Amino acid sequence: MFTQAIRDNAALNKATWGSQVATLDRNLIKYNVYKNKPGMFGFQMDSKFISAYSGYIWTFPHLYDAYTHAMVVVGYDDSKNAYLCLNSWGTDWATAGRIWVDYDFFEQNVTSACTYFGQ
To answer: Which residue(s) pair with 67 in the sheet?
Structure first.
């Protein structure tokens, strides 16, 4: 049960979303990241995602063991052909709590039609 103090604190710390970007629009996703506007998205994770290690680039789904999850796009690297995404599982997972997600894989496997970027 949430107390009134928890609700009051949450009201002061909520996100205000600025825009929706189609998952296929690489240039606009990169532009938002460049402008320090992280983008939230939903996707189907699998056992390869769960056991990601430092430097891993997620490129192939194993959807026979998929679970719905969400992350935030916080960077990109064209030399890796991938977005850098922040997960909520702490810094002991993957690359200090982040994982590289291949651009093509991202476009094919994000379950939300849009990525939502903050203002």
So the answer is: 45
pLDDT at 116: 64
Q: Which helix (H) or strand (E) holds 40?
A: strand 39-45
The structural domains of the chain, ordered by start, are 15-118 (3.90.70.10)
Sheet with 67-77: list strands edge to edge: 17-22, 114-118, 39-45, 67-77, 82-86, 98-102, 57-58
Q: What pTM value is reported for the model?
A: 0.76
User: H/E element holding 21?
Assistant: strand 17-22
> Token pair for residue 115?
């990525």
Tokens 């916080």 found at: 74
pLDDT in tens, 45-91: 777 788 888 888 888 766 666 677 888 899 999 999 999 999 988 89
Alpha helices (H) along the chain: 4-12, 26-34, 47-50, 103-109
